[in-house]
Design goal:
One of its GO terms (biological process) is amino acid metabolic process. About 35% of the residues lie in helices and about 20% in strands. The termini are far apart.
Length: about 475
């Protein structure tokens, strides 16, 4: 017994040594001593130009017939008048009439181009919620340091901010060495098929190979992450895939006074219950592992031990993250029943019942794998499983150690010196997924400071952007373009 106890003590001692060595050997990924970006004056007229863009309701609908394309015509006319040098000196192409691609030719053809992108369509304002807005959603009103309106955070601020940056650089006589593409989609909120997919296909046909791509995405989360109070700039290195399945059961129908042991509704309900009780397994290798690596040097010593030794503490980390909706979604493929259709009268048994289940796929999972697992879990051949629309696999995880990521990191630090920088997995989808054939370095970041309350206004009520935050966004894009020339 003494020998066993001694062996356990020795093993425990060795484990503690390993944990401490891993923690002490941990190197910080955070850049230090980054020179501040060259100061530039962003005039008040810049926020007014964004306000003008907000006043044009470029709302896109899944049913394209409902989309008022006259507003998109107005938007194109508006940006042409607002940014004359961009439209005089940069090559411009349109795709499906409203998708926009600008090319600013670089002086050094040996350097791969970069592509900065966004979208200018917006989601509708839910009918009946207009009265809940502090300012009308399409009036573009500035008050108390904020510009209110649909699109101020998603995503006209990126489109207009990039155009402002290009116009400023043209005015200052800047000539890029590296060719710069600006790509703006008109239907990201509905599919991206008319805009980004078409633009990406055209560039692929021309054999364009890009140094990196930057789309909308992560923000500067001002209330921190993982127990940190320090603001964290989150750069999306991947995004989850998308799949909706329909589960359909067919019964005989009849009078409700003589029901069978299980109706079609009961069969589908049982299948849903099984799926909710057996979630997809949690994993840290879908992008969270990189987030923890980057933040390990910024947290308390106790947390640092945990972050630096994921091989041992992965179950604890997964359990902790699973306690919040966003944390849980970052470590697994999620299962969300969203629609149920069955029955027409309270005393009539429905013949068929159909439920729609939405899945957001963590990198490492696939559409085919999810479908197979769903069938295994529900274990009912009487239920038909069919794909609704077209699913897509998760985006490949882009390396956070590339020169391109370093450039973005450096630029963030030069404009926002007090923030930590970390890669993460985006829970939503962006137009960048269509450009995977053009570059392995695809990143998603919107240089905007927001807390949890602010992020709730994206697609929600009282969407707004701080005037100073928008000015800093323009400064970021100007600095990024300059920093990307090597």
């Amino acid at each position: 017994m003494k020998l066993v106890l001694r062996a356990l003590v020795v093993l425990l001692g060795l484990l503690i040594i390993v944990l401490l060595v891993n923690t002490v050997r941990l190197t910080s990924h955070q850049l230090t001593n980054v020179p501040p970006a060259t100061p530039i004056h962003v005039p008040d007229s810049a926020i007014q130009r964004l306000a003008g863009a907000i006043r044009i309701p470029t709302v896109s609908y899944t049913d394209y017939a409902l989309t008022d394309t006259t507003q998109f015509d107005k938007f194109l006319t508006y940006i042409k008048a607002s940014f004359p040098l961009v439209h005089q000196r940069l090559k411009q192409e349109t795709f499906n009439q409203y998708g926009l691609l600008y090319e600013w030719k670089g002086s050094n053809p040996s350097l791969k181009p970069i592509l900065l992108m966004g979208h200018y369509d917006v989601v509708p304002v839910i009918q009946g919620t207009q009265r809940m807005w502090k300012k009308p959603p399409f009036d573009g009103i500035v008050e108390d340091g904020y510009l209110y309106g649909r699109g101020t955070l998603d995503d006209k601020m990126s489109v207009i901010g990039l155009l402002e940056s290009a116009e400023y650089l043209l005015q200052s006589g800047f000539q890029p060495e590296r060719t710069l593409f600006l790509a703006f989609g008109q239907d990201e909120e509905t599919s991206g098929l008319r805009g980004a997919q078409t633009i990406a296909a055209a560039l692929k046909k021309r054999s364009v190979s890009l140094e990196y791509i930057l789309d909308e995405g992560g923000i500067i989360k001002t209330d921190g992450v993982s127990g940190m109070q320090k603001p964290v700039a989150l750069i999306g290195i991947s995004e989850k895939g998308y799949l909706s399945l329909e589960l359909t059961a067919v019964g005989k129908g009849g009078h409700s006074s003589m029901p069978p042991p299980q109706t079609s509704i009961g069969m589908v309900a049982e299948a849903i219950s099984k799926l909710e009780k057996q979630p997809f397994p949690a994993r840290l290798d879908g992008g969270v592992d990189h987030l923890l690596d980057y933040l390990a040097s910024e947290v308390s010593f106790g947390q640092r031990i945990v972050f630096a030794n994921q091989w041992l503490f992965a179950p604890l980390i997964e359990k902790t993250l699973a306690q919040t909706k966003s944390g849980n979604a970052s470590i697994r493929t999620t299962t969300a029943p969203t629609i149920f259709r069955a029955g027409a009268k309270d005393n009539v048994l429905p013949i068929d019942a159909t439920a729609t289940i939405n899945f957001r796929l963590l990198p490492g999972d696939t559409v085919d794998g999810v479908i197979e697992r769903v069938k295994e879990i529900i274990e009912n051949d009487s239920i038909t499983v069919s794909v609704l629309g077209k699913g897509n696999n998760p985006a490949a995880v882009s390396d956070p150690e590339t020169p391109a990521f370093l450039t973005i990191h450096k630029t963030i630090k030069s404009v926002f010196p007090d923030v930590a920088v970390a890669p993460y997995i985006m829970l939503g989808a962006t137009d960048s997924k269509f450009y995977s054939a053009l570059s392995t370095a695809i990143y998603r970041f919107s240089p905007l400071p927001l807390n949890d309350e602010g992020t709730q206004t994206i697609h929600g009520t009282n969407e707004r952007i701080g005037v100073k935050d928008y000015q800093n966004m323009i400064r970021f894009y100007v600095a990024l373009i300059k920093n990307s020339q090597q």
